[in-house]
Write a structure and sequence with these properties.
This protein is an alpha/beta fold. 32% of the residues lie in helices and 15% in strands. The strands form five sheets. It has a seven-stranded parallel sheet with strand order 1-4-5-6-9-10-11. Strand 9, helix 8 and strand 10 form a beta-alpha-beta unit. The longest helix is centred in the last third of the chain and has 28 residues.
Amino acid sequence: NQFHFHVTDDEGWRVEIPSLPELTEIGSQRGFTQTEQDNLVPCFGSGGDVSNPAGTGFYTREDFIEILQFATARHIEVVPEIDVPGHARAAIKAMNLRYHRLMHAGHETEARQYLLCDFDDASEYESVQLWHDNVICIGQESCYNFIETVLHDLQSMYQAAGAPFTTMHTGGDEVPHGAWEKSPVCQAFMQEQGFTQIVELQNYFLARYRDLLKKYGLVFGGWEEIALIKKEVNGAHTHGPNPDFVNANFRPYVWNNVWGWGQEDFAYQLANAGYKTVLSNVTNLYFDLAYAKDPAEPGYYWGGFIETRGAYEFCPLDIFTTATVNLMGHPLDQDNIASKVRLTPEGTKNIIGIQGQLWSENITHQGRLEYLAMPRTIALAERAWAADPKWTFIKDAAERQAKMDSDWNEFANRLGQRELPRLDGFLGGYGYRIPLPGAKVEAGKLLANVSTPGLGVRYTVDGSEPTASSLLYSEALDFKAISQHANFGGVKLAAFSSSNRKSATVSVKA
């Protein structure tokens, strides 16, 4: 199986490329700067101190080789991602530094060898992350020199590690509208090639990149934008599969299926068109999203909220089976959902896997990573590797829901009684998220439970925080009687793991 290793972006370049030392010399450092000649600007709260590990650091060549060896010994293939042509600001700034140094030394040819920008570019654009200078200039040969040099150095690390290198993930996503339009270099190149539209320039870039990867024997992986082309349907602008690259060894990783955005069926369109497709759906598989709609829960919410059950119930071959609400919990327009493309029998064969994503820009310590990753990753593995549960083929909604409830109950018991205790047994333990208990007062009785059997629920009645020595909940409590005690301060409940780590606390007051 595969580890998709996203090592570059606008805000940092995180792996050493020995042939281009400026990439990590400046591109791996963030801190206060007025010129970005020594480091990049702060981002994501990393602050002005360049020594802050939240913003500065990279994997050395030796580090990367060690990771490859560790993965290979466990039959895991590492798929690196070097993001181009967008999300490339760190690389652009690093190569600018290289250019100015060599120009100052009088070496103009060498200075231009890996240049990624057009200094006279007046294009007006803004990326999703609000950058205005994060897209490489794809109309000059130096950009392709840069890409091949990075590929060469990466391949040498794989060879040194004795690790398989079969796929290169190029990113390719979120290139903002307006890029290249006012670049003299790109416009001159387009005229030379007879191009009249920016999309032709983009297709040229993809074809050149594909040829480079073919030279190194690599599959061309990337986010779905690499396989989509803009089109107009009934007067509306949308995207569809690009027919020019169906047989070009492109592998789209499709993230965009946010309910209500209109692109929910992109993955199935691409698979039906012949693309070998990896499902990376944000709605169920983006583990940097918060578990629940609670201000105390860490994580984003732009794509919704993902409890462990949300990852477990992902149906790869019919994502619409469990589609009922949008990212903010409002009911979906089922007529609209019914109009979306479904997989054909041939398209089904082109779904080659599913992938969970954990974007780390706001993860500043190991505990946060472990909390967001687990136990959702276990649910991902269940859905990726276990037999299809056949929920999709149950037409009656009530019957289908009952089967899903039954299957979840069986999985939740395995998770809570077997897998989570194993994580507790790791050296130092593993900081997975412990779900909050549920609690309610009904007919004078306090009822409580927890979504993962095997976890204990403990409680206090004096308003203090529950601890591992607090009373263990085992049956309904007489809430009226409890609330009349002199020291009553409300009931507080928390779930506890086998190693006595606790969940967040739930309070019930009179």
